[in-house]
Amino acid sequence: MGDALGKIRDSIKFVQASESRGKLFASCVDSVGINLRAGLTLDVSTRWNSTFKMLDRAIKYRFAFDSYQGIDPIYKFLPTTAEWDLGIQICELLQPFDEITNLISGSTYPTSNLYFMQVYKIEYWLRAHEDNGDHVIFEMVEAMKAKFDKYWHDYSEILAMAAVCDPRFKLSLLEFCFTNLDPSTSQQKVDNVKDKLNLLFKAYSKPTTQSSQFVENLQEAVAGVGDSQSHGKAGINYNDFNNFRKKNVTASGKSALDLYLDEPPIDVEMFASLNVLDYWKDNSHRFGELSRMACDLLSIPITTVASESSFSIGSRVLNKYRSCLLPRNVQALICARNWLRGFEPYDESESGEVHGEDDNLPSIESSTS
């Protein structure tokens, strides 16, 4: 793997080393009929996704590199067919992770309801590739699965509850994922999440001191108005009706959470880009405290910070012109940056490509395919 990545990386550096080589490579791109707006890019050690970006771009220019070797005798870094094929496999290996990372790193839409399906996709994908015949891919998947099991083997119960708060999935998503991963324990895990969800809802339904006092005052005021109106000519008294309705609701034994779970899920295909927060806002009159609980769960970000750029320092130290520094030199530049350049604002326009996010809501069709 090191030889394949090394040759691809060195090939990009070579054609970008001078303007004349860049023009010569551009002519090769035209000669082989490649029509792409995105150019070549190098990876940097402080961003894992930059390796995927580098491979993805370089593979598209594969035949241009073949053509370039025929006109520049100094160029000695052309990957072999086997090395290109390995690069393609590695790129395919990393692509799902890049897509999932882009999805869950967004800050303009709720992400907690997306957590469960995305983590399931990663684990299911790792299991499907853990017996890969290629020893390079096998070792990569083995190392990735060890890291995954360390941090994600035990699913987050609170974020599983957030997935239930998505009206397109509810408990059926948990049943689907748990069954595919381990049918013997799937029902137990679903019941555990449901029990925790009921406990949380009871906590939200428990009135606080202030709210209880407010409700009591409101009930007294309404009762006063009701008494004054109930002794009119018609002699209508709604108190008996209200008591009758309360008894019926209590007798049914169904809370707002039970009513929500009993309703059929919303069609996923028709509402692929549903704004779940708007759904709960629009249905707050139906579900009451359940809406408040759902909004609190959906407001939890999956990632520690909403955007990678908050702590991404890679582009502030390394760039396409300087990306081969020794680790100790990179560390020195990071530690001494404030003394060398002073405090200056970070311009995102210089950051190159980072995990982007769409202002629009993520589509379930694109995120679960």
From TrEMBL:
<dbReference type="Pfam" id="PF05699">
    <property type="entry name" value="Dimer_Tnp_hAT"/>
</dbReference>
<dbReference type="InterPro" id="IPR008906">
    <property type="entry name" value="HATC_C_dom"/>
</dbReference>
<dbReference type="Pfam" id="PF14372">
    <property type="entry name" value="hAT-like_RNase-H"/>
</dbReference>
<dbReference type="InterPro" id="IPR025525">
    <property type="entry name" value="hAT-like_transposase_RNase-H"/>
</dbReference>
<feature type="domain" description="hAT-like transposase RNase-H fold">
    <location>
        <begin position="105"/>
        <end position="204"/>
    </location>
</feature>
<protein>
    <submittedName>
        <fullName>Zinc finger BED domain-containing protein RICESLEEPER 2</fullName>
    </submittedName>
</protein>
<dbReference type="InterPro" id="IPR012337">
    <property type="entry name" value="RNaseH-like_sf"/>
</dbReference>
<feature type="domain" description="HAT C-terminal dimerisation">
    <location>
        <begin position="257"/>
        <end position="340"/>
    </location>
</feature>
<feature type="region of interest" description="Disordered">
    <location>
        <begin position="348"/>
        <end position="369"/>
    </location>
</feature>
